[in-house]
Amino acid sequence: MDGLDTLKAKYLTAVADATDESALEEVRVAALGKKGEISAMMATLGKMDPEARKAAGASLNALKDEIDAALRARKAGLADAALDERLRTEWLDVTLPGRPRRMGTIHPVSQVMEELTAIFADMGFAVAEGPQVESDWYNFDALNIPPEHPARQEHDTFFMHRAPGDNRPPHVLRTHTSPVQIRAMMDKGAPIRVIAPGRVYRMDMDQTHTPMFHQVEGLAIDRDISMANLKWCLEEFCRAFFEVPSVELRFRASHFPFTEPSAEVDIRCSWEGGQLKIGQGDKWMEILGSGMVHPKVLTAAGVNPDEWQGFAFGMGIDRIAMLKYGIPDLRAFFESDLRWLRHYGFAALDMPDLPGGLSR
Ligand code: DAH
């Protein structure tokens, strides 16, 4: 049959030129469809004599097979190309970090409380609590501060109102976390190791004082606890808290009614270029008060001082938060300014722990 080569060239070119599946389908219908060109030629075979039909039939079948194969190959090729295109355009890097969505912020004071709780928990300290409205016995007397003691005046105490005619001594807003020492010992006895973070109140207001602020109390009582244990614990705490390789502490003899001997503790630091660096430099900054718990305090809390002894300390949380996170003004802590909170706050779901890092 003449013209088969032309036909073949025509359809193979059309197949090659088809750029999508529907164009390809049109080519298939035109060539091999029921009314297609090849099918029409097949229909003429019946009118041929047997010899010619045999030859023409074979050539037509071969042509049909060839066009069919080309169609299939092109179809597969188009599908591959389409897939490649999708893979290229719909590409997504699943290893990218998620977009953090802030669920509020954690106040630096809360963050620091969590951090110091994690550090002291690692040293075997449990967390103890007490009320913020405290009787003056817990806040003063039991801590060896009798009514006539000058320390009572120094504390700038807020007194709670009593009904007229009620002559019992007034309750106070606790002026320090030290009364929690008494409550913890009365509750659990000795040996005991606790910290007590919480709010305290004093009538004072300037750039470094607010009427409400935060302290953490520490207490460790056992048969042979000494100032050496106190020193190690505080050094270990400061190293972990300020996240520096080493710190240096200086113990200055001091006086607190509830400890004997007493020491105020300073940390070595530098303020070079207005930036605080802990653990280096030639400046010292006071960070806490401490000492060996006074026998009278143990006795008041029902612990026998002939059998038990130990240390206590009290530290300002707001102050160490300011130091660690470079926050200049204490008053801003309690103004609830959202811009301040967003700037100095912490992500809500990042709980500080020692293995994971305190202040990621
Ligand atoms: N309670 C003291 C204050 O608020 C701080 C303090 C000093 C606590 C010495 C202690 C301590 O436990 O041993 O000023």
Give an overview in words.
The chain has helices at about 5-15, 20-30, 35-45, 50-90, 110-120, 135-140, 150-155, 180-190, 225-240, 295-300, 315-325, 340-345; strands at about 105, 125, 135, 170-175, 190-200, 210-220, 250-255, 260-270, 275-280, 285-295, 310-315, 345. By secondary structure, the chain is an alpha+beta fold. The chain has 2 domains: about 5-90; about 105-345, Bira Bifunctional Protein, Domain 2 (BirA Bifunctional Protein, domain 2). The strands form 3 sheets. Strands 2, 5, 6, 7, 8, 9, 10 and 11 form an 8-stranded mixed sheet that branches. Strand 7 and strand 8 (about 260-270) form a beta hairpin. Helix 2 (about 20-30) packs antiparallel against helix 4 (about 50-90). The longest helix is centred in the N-terminal third of the chain and has 40 residues, at about 50-90. The radius of gyration is 42 Å and the shape is rod-shaped. The structure holds 3,4-dihydroxyphenylalanine. 3,4-dihydroxyphenylalanine binds next to strand 10 and strand 11.
